[in-house]
Design a protein that fits this description.
This protein is an alpha/beta fold. The protein has a single domain, classed as NAD(P)-binding Rossmann-like Domain (Rossmann fold, 3-Layer(aba) Sandwich). 37% of the residues lie in helices and 18% in strands. The protein has a seven-stranded parallel β-sheet, with helices on both faces. Strands 7-8 form a two-stranded parallel sheet. Helix 3 links the parallel strand 5 and strand 6. Helix 1 crosses helix 5, helix 2 runs parallel beside helix 3 and helix 5 crosses helix 6. The termini are close together.
Length: 224
């Protein structure tokens, strides 16, 4: 089956790996990116839309694909203003899901975070939880929400806390067994592979945590 895909957040840590997987996969004939800046890659399948992603609705006619992947996300350090933070982490994914539904998308995959809870007193967890709730009600046949714990990978910007935490999780991952597996760190390339797997093969759960992300990534062979 020939398919098309849309990626939001293609210039980010996980988004870059996801684009690479999409371009390699023979199921996809076109990969459309919606972002503020160019990815810096040339490929016959690649189509880039340089836009203000906070105004995604203005580009609803072009926002059409079988599968939509949302890797958008910011941090408290990068976006201390809570109103702007919500526009990014809540507003963009929810708008994307609504547009995807209107334009007949078959699958929507979004990265959330461990701890997401619409009833949380913690602002950042609450925003993620509210985003999940409103994405899940979109009229799309297949919706998957990824809740990774710490995401491991080589970032362009250096986050001191994450660097320290990454080394700590490498030591303690093997100790996290049973119900604690959901707290294991997960590599960005594994998130990308797992996203590809659920978009191309039926999966029973809508909420996918770190341990399942790693399991699904191991099943994905990159060819179909």
């Amino acid at each position: 089956m020939e398919k098309t895909a849309i990626v939001l957040g293609a210039t980010g840590l996980t988004g870059r790996h996801l684009v690479e997987e999409l371009l390699k996969n023979e199921n996809y004939t076109k990969v459309s990116l919606f972002s503020r800046s160019k990815l810096g890659k040339v490929h016959a399948k690649l189509e880039e839309h340089l836009i203000d992603v906070l105004k995604l609705e203005s580009h609803k006619e072009a926002f059409k694909a079988h599968d939509v992947f949302c890797c958008i996300g910011t941090t408290k350090a990068k976006t201390p203003d809570k109103e702007k933070y919500k526009k990014i982490d809540y507003g963009i994914p929810v708008t994307a899901a609504k547009l995807a539904a209107k334009n007949g998308a078959e699958c929507f995959v979004v990265i959330s975070a461990m701890g997401a809870d619409a009833n949380s007193r913690i602002f950042y967890n609450r925003i993620k939880g509210e985003m999940e709730q409103d994405v899940m009600v979109a009229n799309i046949p297949n919706i998957y929400i990824f809740r990774p714990a710490l995401i491991v990978g080589d970032r362009e910007e250096k986050r001191i806390f994450e660097k320290v935490a990454t080394h700590a999780f490498k030591l303690f991952n093997f100790m996290l067994v049973g119900n604690l597996k959901k707290y294991r760190s997960v590599r960005c390339e594994n998130i990308a592979k797992a996203m590809m797997h659920v978009a191309n093969f039926w999966y029973s759960d809508s909420i996918i945590k770190s341990n399942k992300i790693n399991e699904l990534a191991a099943k994905y062979d990159g060819r179909n």
